[in-house]
Specification:
The chain is mostly helical. It has one domain. Helices cover about 70% and strands about 5% of the residues. It has 15 helices and 4 strands. Strands 1-2 form a two-stranded antiparallel ribbon. Strands 3-4 form a two-stranded antiparallel ribbon. Strand 3 and strand 4 form a beta hairpin. Helix 6 runs antiparallel to helix 9. The two termini are about 35 Å apart.
Length: about 350
């Protein structure tokens, strides 16, 4: 890490560590809590404003120690602010899913307008240096990752750890390629996630809610786009952010397939069909499930670092191997498991 990144990380961690109890107190007074229900493990209302602490810690650390980074990453920070506000509003008074999706799309479009977009496919231009296909890929990527991180917030400590691992990988990649704009923002996400995780690991005393998960997802998706590798072929480097975020993307694919097979709406129906729940069903404790998912994130990050400097054949072989492993995981956890013992969406009360 550079000195700037270290200062931003330390600041974000300290601010989240100090600010999360304040957010917890505020949430309890304002009644912004996650109420117990039949398919949830907690037995009393739990505060939901952890996302406010994460957002505030990251933003304040960047403002205090990030220097010119804040101005140069204004598009990402503005979009992250809007999705965080949408999420916190949803935590207070649930919004219709279509409104949340529309907000994410608008923020993705605003990100494109600020100059942060995929540069991968040659095609019809809709603006200076911006192709139609690249614009569509940008929107799909941002919305997919934002929702994948939102889905990943399903058990104490899981998302905080996954976000921290992804952010740490991005810090390393950004510093290795000399990108001193991406590194401080990734360091802010890393510090804020770890500071919040102190209070969110099982048994959690506060949840980050949609305000935190949507903010983390949007920012990490944008940083994945912003990350560049000078002198390297985009035929390989596009795989890097996909690998960094492979675990939440796998969980999203697993849940969507599971709920689609059960003929329920994947995006409006909750359930105990996430990777973490399936690990618990196979004998892991909630602690072990969370830590296992963090380790998977570390492995994916390690592969991302390898691919960032790999030749074309090596990169595609790694991607093919990860894709094959993901398909096997979906088959093993969903298709093979349901043949042996079909499960409902509420058979393991482990989500919060």
């Amino acid at each position: 890490m550079t000195l700037t990144s270290l200062l931003v990380f330390a600041g974000a961690f300290s601010l989240a560590l100090a600010g999360t109890p304040l957010a917890r107190r505020l949430a309890m007074r304002a009644g912004i809590t996650d109420a117990p229900s039949a398919h949830k493990v907690h037995t009393r209302p739990t505060p939901l404003l952890g996302g406010l602490a994460i957002y505030a810690a990251a933003m304040l650390a960047l403002a205090l120690f990030g220097g010119t980074t804040v101005a140069q990453l204004a598009g990402i920070l503005a979009g992250g602010t809007v999705v965080a506000m949408i999420g916190m509003w949803d935590d207070r008074r649930p919004l219709r899913p279509i409104l949340k999706l529309a907000g994410q799309v608008v923020c993705a479009v605003a990100l494109i307008a600020s100059g942060v977009h995929v540069q991968l496919v040659a095609g019809p231009l809709i603006g200076p240096g911006l192709g139609l296909v690249d614009a569509l890929l940008t929107v799909v990527w941002v919305v997919a990752v934002t929702n994948a991180m939102n889905f990943m917030d399903n058990m104490d400590g899981v998302l905080g750890g996954v976000a921290a691992v992804a952010a740490a990988t991005l810090v390393l990649l950004a510093n290795a390629s000399g990108q001193q704009l991406v590194a401080p923002l990734a360091a802010a996400v890393l510090g804020a996630s770890l500071g919040f995780l102190v209070y969110n690991f099982n048994p959690a005393t506060i949840f980050m809610g949609d305000g935190g998960s949507l903010f983390l997802g949007f920012v990490l998706a944008a940083l994945g786009i912003k990350l560049r590798f000078p002198g390297r072929s985009p035929d390989v480097t596009w795989m890097v952010p996909v690998l960094v975020l492979a675990v939440p993307l796998f969980d999203l694919a697993l849940v969507v397939m599971s709920r689609t097979r059960r003929r329920v709406n994947p995006f409006t129906t909750g359930g105990q069909d996430h990777l973490s729940h399936r690990l618990v069903r196979r004998g892991a404790s909630p602690h072990e499930a969370a830590q296992s998912i963090w380790l998977l994130g570390c492995a994916a990050g390690g592969l991302a670092i390898f691919v960032s400097d790999a030749r074309r054949l090596e990169g595609w072989l790694v991607l093919a191997g990860v894709a094959a492993l993901g398909l096997w995981g979906i088959w093993k956890l969903e298709l093979a498991a349901t043949r042996q013992a079909p499960h409902s969406s509420s058979d393991v009360p482990m989500t919060h």
